[in-house]
Amino acid sequence: MGNLSFLSFFSSPWFLSSMTSKTQTFLQRGSSLSDSTYITSPDKSFTYGFYGQGENAYWFSMWFTNSNERTVVWTENRNRPVHGRASRVLLQKDGTMVLSDADVSTVWDTNTTSPDVDRAELLKTINLVLKNPEGKTLWQSFDFSTNTLLPVHIFDFTPPRRLS
After folding, report:
1. Sequence-separated contacts (24+) of 157-163 with Cβ below 8 Å
2. pTM
3. How many C-beta neighbours within 10 Å does residue 29 have?
């Protein structure tokens, strides 16, 4: 029975996708993420990318990197999963981060436009940020929190920043 569990783990979709996935620490403007590319926090505690459920439903989520079951802590499109492996997250040249479905329809975006946005990073505080070349945060996911609070969550009680 132990050998069957061992073989099941190594043939599981999660294991096979992790063997072919690419992890990076940031997403450069003009680049995209797909179902096999991820952004990881600097301390490797959290990962941000597509989380699949079944064969054709994906959520763009953050999860604990080292959890056996990919324990998801936040999802951007939880009410509208995207379909298939053709979905993408793109950090557009205009500074907007966009999640598009396989049919290229927009499911979620940061509602930002700024030529100053250089990259997207996932901080060790689980905050997804858009930064300029000097490292200044121009947009952050913490300004748009949902119903999940974690011990590393830092609150900023100033009004959300909007880029124009």
Report:
1. 162/111, 162/112, 163/95, 163/112, 163/113, 163/114, 163/116, 163/117, 163/138, 163/139
2. 0.74
3. 20
The answer to whether the CB of 27 falls within 8 A of the CB of 91 is yes
Sign of CA dihedral 105, 78, 68, 62: positive
Q: How far apart are CA 80 and CA 86, in angstroms?
A: 15
**Residue type (1 letter), 42:** P
Fill in the amino acid letter for 2: G
* Cα distance between residue 97 and residue 31, in whole Å: 10
DSSP-H helix ranges across the chain = 2-10, 13-19
Q: Taking 90 as the threshold, does the pLDDT of residue 143 lie above it?
A: no
Q: Which residues contact 88 (CB under 8 A, 6 or more apart)?
A: 32, 33, 34, 99, 100
Q: Averaged over 56-62, what is the pLDDT?
A: 87
**How is 59-106 classified by DSSP, letter by letter?**
EEEEEETT-TT--EEEESSTTS-B-STT-EEEE-TTS-EEEE-TT--E
What residue has token string 């952004």?
A: 39
Least confident of 14-28, 68-82, 91-105: 14-28
